Amino acid sequence: MISTKLLDLVAELLQVKASTLNGESQREQTPGWDSLMHCQIMTEIEFEFDLDFSMDEMQNTTSLLAIQNLITEKSNEA
Q1: Mean pLDDT over each residue of the chain, to the nearest integer
Q2: pTM for the complete prediction?
């Protein structure tokens, strides 16, 4: 399940309604979510969730579900 906080953050950055996004929303298939926006999304997530991602982690998370799983994994490491 995708957290409301993540949905709201990504929706704000993409300038869409959060209700238009779900776990299957993916980079390159969601309007406005190109590679540059992906970097911005991941950077904002790092800031908002107080996490640090490696470049590989940033590049390999191409859907909201993958991002949510990474957030959960990193949060459990702390």
Answers
A1: 95
A2: 0.92
